[in-house]
Amino acid sequence: MRPSTRFAAALSLFIVIAAPPLRGGDLSGSVRTVDGQPLPQIVLVLDGPSGSRTLVTGPDGRYHAQDLPPGAYTVATDAPGFVVSPEARVAVAEADVRLDLRLEPAPIREQVVVAATRGDAALSTLGVSVGVLDQEQIAEREPSSVLQLLQDLPGIAVARTGGPGSQASAFVRGGESRFARILVDGVPVNQPGGGFDFGSALPLELDRIEVVRGSASSLYGTDALAGVIHLVTRRAGPEPGIGLRAEAEGGSFAWRRFQAGTAARAGAWDWNAGVVRLDTDNEAPNSTFTETAGAASLGVGLGERSILRFVLRAEDSERGTPGPTAFGRPDLDAFFERTDVTAAAHLRHTRGSAAHDLRVGIARTAQLSVNPEDSGSYVPRVGDLVGSFELSDFPDPLGFQNDTVRYSLGYQGEVQAGPRNLLSGGADLEHESGEIGSRAGELLSPSRTNVGLYAQDRVVLADRFYVTLGGRIERNQNFGTKAVPRLAVAVRVRGGVDATTLRASAGAGIKEPNFFETFGTSFFAQGNPDLKPERSRTFDVGVEQRLLDSRLRVEATFFRHQYHDQIAFTVLDFDTFQGTYVNLARTRAQGLELALEAAPSTRIQLRAEYTLLDGEVLVSAADFDPVYAVGERLLRRPRHQASFTLRCGAARANVGATLVLVGRRTDSDFVGLELRENDGYARLDARARAKLARGFEAFVVAENVLGLDYQEALGYPALGRAVRAGLRFRSGS
């Protein structure tokens, strides 16, 4: 070797030995859906020069990989229902690199929910049972009420005393109608004590409905004995621009509905707003229902790290209340007025691996039940049955008032504590007050304040084992301090788009008494300030299987709920009929929930749900009423219920149908006819839509197509066959 060659080789070796090693690069970014929803606790697989490693996203779907050797990398995700499209490739050098991922939905899409963890979460990472109807499914159903949508989800039974606007209840997993926490954009809207009337709830500007089945008191405290029902207001789409919507509809039973809305996104601002006016006579005498409602969402970005959002929903309605018309003469003058307002402000700030949420909310309802005149007495009759006593009308010209307001203030912090732990915790302050009673006398004016502290840890173990552990300490002004835990586990035993996921969850729930049960002053229904909270213990275990490249999803869940210390009215003296409230009743509900979704092609979609409920009274709430006797089935909660929905068509035209099957159930006429069972029924609803020129769309909807007679609640006939048709206009985003 020549000297010059030896010198060059030695110099090169010296440079290699003396030069500092190349610094690894950093790769960071966020993972979101195509709609912009962040995806925490998603496992990412990073392949490159150093081999393969996994990352877990934290708050707002953020991830960060440090000290990566320079080279080309690919990023994939193991989240059923999502695919990275296009395939994520990135070159990493010494400089930091950012790669934001947008996950496309699979044919059977993954749902992202808030109510299950009080933060964005993909269902595949949760052990909790959750049912979701998204904006597309809600629009396709063409529903006349929110209650109609709830009946299409597993684990929920409904009962309504007539047509739209009538008093309506939802029962989650065999619980009482007051056993579910009702949220509107994160704001609790239950009456103090848990009750909520879905009668006037219209599907106005809804983005999605989430139903958590199983106790959620570890996050929400009172009311969440059996689950949570969360209604979320629509927001503007992710693309800049402005859009307008308008529609008009008319049909059977003098149905008239007019609706309009707008949505826009410009710079840091986005908004969505809509209004609706509905009038219908509901077939029966004095059943007219009218409502005017509005909903709006306004968001503004405060720099790159913060967003402030305001949400407002309001409705004003009036309906006639003829009573159980199947058993006798209707009351032709009684009516019910209701005004509800829900408002919320939400500030979210993110910094690094932490996020902070501050929420303020108010839910106010003003309800007035008026019976101006004495319509006289009557004896109820149906078929050959005659009531055992005469019913009297009780006029109240000034009306019975139920005005309540619920203020809520909450803070929640989230932090990625280590590469696989997402810790969250927070505090809630709620103040409830009311003005309740007959306006002819002195009104009851109760109030109470509740405080809760909670913590939750979401952990990813071995990439496919997800654990959620949480608990809450609730300080209630009436019943004192209680602690409630929850544990949920999801195990993905098979990954990829055709994943198999096992789920299990267990928790405890509590619910405060209502105002009358605690503060009542009537001699015949004296309040009991020593009442304990109603309690629940819930457990479920299930499996979800995706098949055929995620074109088919099948889910089965077994559940068992026990409800303890249920509050019941008891008579203290049968001579004077003096009464009060005690923690007496105990019930059990167990059963099976089945769900199926199929998308064999882009033009055909199928959904099916079935619920088997074995519910039983263990300790009687009212010994004097055989409907509540030990061993009886739970009131108005069917043993068998199913729903089947089929949608066919393309973008320009489509048709759909939903068949609801409800089995026989325990019920009561409550008027002395001794009826204790309500027949099952089938209701077939159908709809069709066709796009016309320049943004116009025509649609027609038929409900109870078969025209069958049935009663969701004994004595209150449901509507017969109803057809409505309309014209819809959309422009822009």
Summary of the model, kept short:
This protein has 733 residues and is mostly beta strands.
What structural keywords apply?
single chain; 733 residues; mainly beta; Immunoglobulin-like; Maltoporin, Chain A; 3 domains; five-stranded mixed beta sheet
* CATH H-level superfamily of the largest domain: TonB-dependent receptor, beta-barrel domain
- Poorly predicted spans: 1-22
Which CATH class of the largest domain applies here?
Mainly Beta
Please state the second-level CATH architecture of the largest domain: Beta Barrel
As a whole number of angstroms, the C-alpha radius of gyration is 28 Å
Tally of helical segments: 5
Structural domain count? 3
Query: In one word, what is the shape?
Result: globular
- Helicity level, as a percent range? under 10%
CATH topology of the largest domain, anyone?
Answer: Maltoporin, Chain A
Task: Give a description of the structure.
The chain is mainly beta and 733 residues long. The chain has three domains: 21-105, Sandwich (Immunoglobulin-like); 112-229, Beta Complex (Ferric Hydroxamate Uptake Protein, Chain A, domain 1), CATH 2.170.130.10; 230-732, Maltoporin, Chain A, CATH 2.40.170.20. The protein is 5% helix and 58% strand. The chain has five helices and 48 strands. It has a 22-stranded antiparallel beta barrel. Strands 1, 4, 6, 8 and 9 form a five-stranded mixed β-sheet that branches. Strand 21 (269-280) and strand 22 form a beta hairpin. The longest helix has 16 residues, at 3-18. The chain starts with a helix and ends with a strand.
